[in-house]
Amino acid sequence: MRLILRVMGTWLIALALVLIVIDGTKSLGANALVFTSLSDLWTQLHPASLAGAQDFVHSRFFEDLLEATLTALLSYPAFAVFGVPGVVLALLGRKRRAERFLRQDQI
């Protein structure tokens, strides 16, 4: 299980790094900070699936809550949306340390 968490975390972090390099390149070209939101990225990749996801949210019981959550998530920078869960998954998959502090005789 830890291996799966670490691999998924590594892939998400790698995707976030690629996205931040793309945003950095755009920022250098524009002479200003440019962040690609998740909705812009999703629209560039496959706009029909974005419309399908929004239609799915509209057909659910908690439509207002889900719509607000989806709108907030789509407004965040794409690298952050993939990077934060990647770091969390990588930390959850790390090996636990038995002792954090050394005793006097172990120094």
Low-pLDDT runs: none
Query: What's the pLDDT, averaged over the residues?
Result: 91
H/E element order: HHHHH
Number of helices: 5
The tally of strands reads: 0
- Structure class: mainly alpha
Q: Could you say which overall geometry the principal axes of the C-alpha atoms support?
A: extended
Number of spatially distinct domains? 1
Distance between the termini: 34 Å
Helix content: over 70%
Q: Per DSSP, what share of the residues sits in E-state strands of 2 or more residues? A: under 5%
Q: Give the biggest beta sheet.
A: none
Query: How big is the Rg?
Result: 19 Å
Structural account:
- With 107 residues, this protein is an all-alpha fold.
- The protein has one domain (2-95).
- The protein has 5 helices and no strands.
- The chain has helices at 2-30, 38-45, 47-58, 63-75, 78-92.
- Helix 1 runs antiparallel to helix 5 and helix 2 crosses helix 3 (47-58).
- The radius of gyration is 19 Å and the shape is extended.
- The mean pLDDT is 91.
